[in-house]
# Entry
Amino acid sequence: MKVEITVNGADTSADVEPRLLLAHYLRDVVGLKATNIGCDTTSCGACTVLLDGESVKSCTLLAAQVDGQSVTTMEGLSSEGDDLHPVPAAFRTEHGLQCGFCTPGMVMAAVGLLAENPKPTEREIREGLEGNLCRCTGYHNIVRAVIAASGQDPDTVQGAAIHQGHAEVAPAGGVQAAPGFSVSSAAHASAATSTEGNAA
Amino acid sequence: MSIMGTRVVRTEDAAFLSRGARYTDDLELVGALHLTLVRSPVAHARIASIDVEEARSAPGVVAVLTAADVDLTPALLYEGADKAMVRPFLASEVVRFVGEPVAAVLTEEAYQGQDAADLVEVDYDPLPVVVGIKAAATDEVLLFPDAGTNTSNGFGHDKEFDPDFFDGCDVVVTREIVNQRLAAAPLETRAASAEWGQDGRLTLWCSTQGAQAARDEVAGWLGIDAEQVHVITPDVGGGFGAKIGADPEFALVAWLARHVGRPVRWNETRSENMTGMVHGRAQLHTLTIGGNRDGKVLAYRLDVLQDGGAYPRLGGLLPQLTLLMAPAVYDIERVESRARVLVTNTTSVGAYRGAGRPEATVAIERAMDLFAAEIGMDPAEVRRRNLLAPEAFPLVTKGGAPYDSGEYEKALDAVLEASGYAALRAEQAARRERGDIVQLGLGVSVFVEITAGGVFSEDAAVEVHPDGSVTVLTGTSPHGQGHATAWAMLANEHLDIPIEKITVKHGDTDLIPRGLGTMGSRSLQTGGVAVYQAAGELVELAKRRAADVLEASVDDLVIERGAVVVKGTDSSVTLSDLAAREALRVDSNFSSGAPSFPFGAHVAVVEVDVESGKVVVDRIITVDDAGPILNPLLAEGQRHGGIAQGIAQALLEEVVYDEDGNPLTATFADYGIPSAAELPSFTLLDMATPTHLNPLGVKGVGEAGTIGATPAVQSAVIDALSHLGVRHIDMPLTPLRVWEAIEGAK
# Structure
């Protein structure tokens, strides 16, 4: 059957099997590989994309169901790596990714979350991303990234919903240089462009 | 002015966050067939017949093959195992676990492969099933009759324990505890693609933690020279130990590609992964601890049974590390231990984050808590009274481990103070007094682990190009750790060339023939130091060449912004100019000669609803001392991920089989990987005790969080219930188990 789907603003169309999943349509028909598939029970969320602006798991939809609609994948957020959309940019700054496999889905889920709730609390972020599994980060820095992307200060917001005072002792926001190396206040000249002023 | 110790964001992230990373299954491979494996749905059976005719005529099918068609020799996957315990690449006569490959289906399209695989008819004659380590130990049913036993190997497993071992102890406590089977569950499942060139060489793209080891294993299984195999590791979506080396499926993919004369690609589903990829942990411990009522522990005994799964793999080695680390951070006069590895009709067991050391740590920390409860002393205080003193280092432990450096009491003090331990104990007492439904629990762990165990050396090359860019080649193999950034920092430290101009390459065996990969928290202290050393040697080489060019003494030359400069003058020559005159590359190797022993302490604070058994982790406060920290952003990320996996083992995760060997947790819907909603934010404290084993003083940090957090969280939950008489609950501490323990103590 023929489907016409707008992907990242571009018209795409193809003759597809009725059973073709949207995730496979994006990866194998359109050739956009950022959207990953991490499970077969719609549990992990690695395939999360925006469908007409709302985050959905693209493994739970048939391409046929999306005929005539508009899909945004992570590739659609930023034209290139040195000019990132604010959400992936915050993931970079806060080190909210390691192996990168959950990342496209996590980023799209975060974009969807912030569209619904522009100033979320830590608890709201944790609940809001419940459908997206990450095996590397322990979510700590993903939560920070979403807080930062919302324009709030991670050092203030994080932990507030659970217990007071966490941020003050967390070195994630508290130190510029690690113990053990003696480092002067200014970062190395050639590294300065990449060194984040992450101090509290 | 140094880049060392600064929070440099990752260079790899620009691509990862725009177009996405490139994993094995993302690669285009023109003309490739898709491999779908038919896997056994039964745990132990004789294969009566396989009918592939209907599958062969299904749409898109190019070939359907069984063991009869494949001439690969069954392989011994762990060299220490009984030589009869070999695994065929497709099961021929007997299947030994649910998930064992039985037939291979090659199709033009992936969906066609699933359709055709469903048409393969296999008749199984059931055999008695061995599930559980104790059942295996009876040898009543043998997985490998030729072996005559289910014991694959052991470590002192035939020795008798000393009957007088606990003489002189006021108190002796013994307990059997389970260190349950876990799934590594990297988000990227296993994948491999193979193509044979006109020259007869194999190119294999695969998801692995070490391309060179994968090359050697696959070449061995195929019976060809390693030089005939070119392994390329694209981006890897997590490994956690389960992607060390190659899996047998990789060799099958390569064999099939040669057989049909076309490229073949394979990307397993999650359900396949949960039964096909190695599991971790899976130990049963009997621990005994003895000491005096003043809190001094005098003797500790650990008896380990390791479930190796159906075909022994790295699981056969894990208990060796468990025994090595058995006495952990404690100064105990008498320590004895032994371990036996057994085969069962389950998925093979391999490495998973910590690999043998979390098991050792949970055992001794549980023993400490049980001892503390018996003598009525605070568990933190009992630990303090038995810690190895800083002045004792370096030392060789009763387990045989050569500890390099440690400040255990300092780590313990730091987490106790930051947690407000005394105030929390007061709060706990108040809740108990009031009979609150939600009780407070505190868990303390002090831990030490071995990193870079067994493999101390690594190669590196650094080359400056005429255009001013730099290439770093490394034998380590990142899959989330951030080596592209961290190794560039190490090169930058010497070369003073911006990290954006430094490209770190790994995982291509033609480019980097030697390398040991990334596992066991080894990379920075071996491969990273090798890069640092190579860059330093490159500077010395550049200075010697520049001395001629600049007509200056080498002693007067310094490096500034990628140039060799005559100190205090304008006279200089850039490294790129020197590279234009003559290739400017240094190959180096670094060997620390010994493993290092990072350590730390964790305090977990949990709330337990004593009516429902529900546990919430409120806080976890950790010291994970891995020496000086090259990039805190990356090191904290490693700690976070490790802590999460430790909490997950303590509370949520377990691979479960029923009595017939059917896996009950073979999907992400059934296996309890935590989401963000189940975890708190983490409180990380800094401590940096250097090692003398390398010039940077660094140790490994990738597994620390898991090793410290698992026992801390388990202890915290039990501590919350100690006033009810609960002394132990096996992991995972699910609401049901906690509730049952409360009911059982009434």
Remarks:
- Chain A has two domains: 2-76, 86-171.
